[in-house]
Amino acid sequence: MGIDFNGRVAIVTGAGGGLGRQHALALAARGAKVLVNDLGGAVDGSGATVGAAQAVVDEIRAAGGEALANGASVTDFAAVEAMVQQAIDAWGRVDVLVNNAGILRDKSFSKMSMDDFRLVVDVHLMGAANCCKAVWPHMVAQQYGRIVMTTSSTGLYGNFGQSNYGAAKLAQVGLMQTLAIEGAKYNIHVNALAPTAATRMTEGLMPQEVLDALKPEAVVPAMLVLAHESAPTRTILCAGAGTFEAAHITLTQGVHLGIGADVPEQLAAHLAQVTDRAGEQVPQSGAAQGTNEVGKALAARA
User: Fold this and answer.
1) Which residues of 220-250 are buried (b: 16+ CB within 10 A; e: fewer)?
2) How many other C-beta atoms lie within 10 A of the C-beta of residue 34?
3) Is 193 within 8 Å of 176 (Cβ atoms)?
4) What are the CA-CA distances from residue 144 to residues 21, 34, 73 (Å)?
């Protein structure tokens, strides 16, 4: 196989079922040694058991692969550090991190408690940050790493009743952008995957015939491409039902209006031109915005 992971060590969080399980099985089938992490809780994050992770480990071993189970909560940094050390002790390195762990606590924003908002952000965003922080020094030392964030169309484009989930998922993209820049000199590539898949987390959200079409296995190729040594960096791949797309955060050319009492009125009058996507760019860093703005300001003075 052209995309293989022979000699690589991967950690997949939230891998006790659904999409995470498919990620772990696919990496193992292509040669990776896999640490299967799963808290073993319910979709809302309650409860815990290592049984789900162990079941996936047993599947991998039965197929001739190497795997270890781990039941750490990604919200517990000390437990996450111990999880990474478990992989290091067993196999000497960590090459791939797939941040897949997540929970749902859906409600419209007016009805959502801030405890439910905070917990979803803690699991998705802080969980990913904890895992990245724990593997980072090892990837820097070995001058190699591949990290896959799991974002969502909800984070990229919004979805009713998922303000907490959407906020956390788009935040992972922001984390990806900066880690990719900081990791470039160490050959650490960081990307994001936006899956559409039928899992425990999507049951009840879509009609059954749609869920039947959205097999988690159909998303896995995108993860494999983003986790492989040939992976791009700072790429957002979307995947579902065998279809693959890319999402981009862009910057329009904009319009220079200067400074003055009537600029608010001018901006309102020119808003269509400001938001016109002709000639938009995908910035290489946040500095692109300031460069564009100052450049137009200086050109206006010339």
Assistant:
1) bebbbbbbbeebebbbbbbbbeeeeeebeee
2) 31
3) no
4) 24, 17, 25
Query: Which residues lie across from 68 on neighbouring strands?
Result: 35
Tokens read off for 53: 């992770």
Residue whose C-alpha is closest to residue 28's, from 91, 103, 101, 102 = 91
Whole-number Å distance between alpha carbons of 28 and 86: 17
What confidence tens digit (pLDDT) does each residue in 154-211 have?
999 999 999 999 999 999 999 999 999 999 999 999 999 999 987 555 566 667 877 7
104: Cβ–Cβ under 8 A, 6 or more apart, which residues? 43, 44, 120, 162, 165, 201
- Which tokens in the block code for residue 55? 């079941």
Q: How many residues does the chain have?
A: 302
Is 165 noted as a catalytic residue in this protein?
Answer: yes
Q: Which of 144, 157, 165, 186 is catalytic?
A: 165
DSSP 8-state symbol, 185: G
By CB atoms closer than 10 A (0-12, 13-18, 19+), residue 162 is buried
